[in-house]
Amino acid sequence: MIEQSTINPIQPEQRTLELDVIRGFAIFGILIVNMQFFSSAYVYLLRNRITLWPDEGDKLAKLLIDLFAAGKFYTMFSFLFGIGMMIFLERARQKGKRGLRLFLRRVTILLFFGILHAFFIWSGDILFEYAVLAFLLVLFERARPWFVLLSSCFFLLLRPVLTYFDAYQKITIPLYKASGLGTQLFDPSGLLEQANYVFSSGSYGEQIVQRLTDFVYQYGTFWALFPIVFAMFLLGVYVAKKRIFHDVASNMRLIRSVWIGSLIVALLSYSIKAELYTTNLHSFRYLYGQWIISLFDPALCLFYVTSLLQLLQIQSVRVKLAPLAAVGRMAISNYLASSLICTTIFYSYGFGLFNKVGPAKGLLLACLIYPLLMVGSIVWLRYFRYGPVEWLWRSLTYGELQPMRLERPHQTNS
Question: Boundaries of each DUF418 domain copy (predicted)?
Answer without folding.
Answer: 240-399
